[in-house]
Specification:
single chain, seven-stranded mixed beta sheet, five-stranded mixed beta sheet, alpha+beta
C-alpha cells in the first residue's frame, strides 16, 4: 500500500447506532436503516449495535450489500450463534488493524480499528460504543487515548454515551467539532452522545444529522478534508 496522501481530498464519514434496526414504534427494518444511511451518501460508515446470527442473518453485511460497501464486524456480545457489536463499512474494503476489548462492567465493549486505502489517501477509522456507567466509561476513554494509532490520518466515530469534560483525554490527541448536533432520542433529539473526532491530518468542513426514525439514534455525519 502507498502511504501517499492528497491534500484537499475530502470524505464523508457517518456514524450510526442502529439499535439492531429497531426504530419508532418498535418496527425492525434493516431496509429503513440502509435508506437513512444512503441518503447521506457517505464514503465510510461506523455502526454500533449491529446484530448477526451466524449462517442465517447479518445486519452489517445486508447494509453493506445495499450500499455497495465492504464491511468489517466486531462481535462484542456472543450468545450461541448470535453476535452483537460494532462495524465499519467503506467503498474500499476495510482492512482490520485491531480488535480491542475494553474495560467492562456488565456488557462487553470493544474498539474496532480498520485501515482504508481510498483514491489519493490511506487512513484509519475506529469505532466504539462506550458504557452507560460513568466510571467504566472513564476507564474505556483512557484505553482509547492510549490505543489509537496516530501515525496515519485517523477518524474515531461512535456512540460514546457522553460529551463535554468526559472526553478530555481524547481531546488531547484528537480534534472534535465545537458543537456536535444532538442525536438521541431520534424523535426529539436532545443528547449529544454520538461523535466524530479526528487527528490533526483532517480539517472539518461540516457536520450534521440525518432525520430518520429507523433507530432510537440519528445518523451523524462529518465532511473531512485532508490538510
Amino acid at each position: 500500500m502507498s502511504d501517499d496522501r492528497t491534500a484537499g481530498a475530502s470524505y464523508r464519514f457517518l456514524t450510526y447506532n442502529i439499535h439492531h434496526a429497531q426504530g419508532a414504534g418498535g418496527l425492525v427494518s434493516i431496509g429503513r436503516v440502509s435508506r437513512a444511511i444512503a441518503g447521506a451518501h457517505p464514503g465510510v460508515v461506523a455502526i454500533n449495535e449491529a446484530y448477526r446470527w451466524r449462517g442465517f442473518f447479518d445486519q452489517t453485511a445486508s447494509i453493506g450489500t445495499s450500499l455497495g460497501m465492504g464491511s468489517s464486524f466486531q462481535a462484542n456480545v456472543v450468545i450461541g450463534p448470535t453476535e452483537y457489536g460494532n462495524a465499519i463499512l467503506a467503498r474500499e474494503a476495510p482492512l482490520v488493524v485491531a480488535d480491542i476489548r475494553l474495560a467492562k462492567r456488565r456488557e462487553a465493549r470493544g474498539l474496532l480499528i480498520v485501515e482504508i486505502e481510498a483514491p489519493g489517501a490511506r487512513f484509519r477509522v475506529a469505532t466504539t460504543h462506550l458504557s452507560l456507567h460513568r466510571r467504566t466509561r472513564a476507564a474505556q476513554i483512557e484505553q482509547l487515548a492510549a490505543a489509537l494509532p496516530l501515525d496515519l490520518p485517523l477518524v474515531l466515530m461512535g456512540d460514546l454515551n457522553c460529551g463535554g469534560a468526559e472526553l478530555a483525554p481524547l481531546r488531547r490527541i484528537l480534534t472534535a467539532p465545537e458543537e456536535t448536533p444532538p442525536t438521541f432520542p431520534s424523535l426529539r433529539p436532545t443528547l449529544r452522545v454520538d461523535h466524530v473526532m479526528f487527528s490533526r491530518h483532517w480539517r472539518l468542513l461540516g457536520i450534521a444529522t440525518v432525520r430518520s426514525l429507523a433507530s432510537d439514534h440519528l445518523p451523524l455525519y462529518a465532511d473531512l478534508e485532508l490538510r
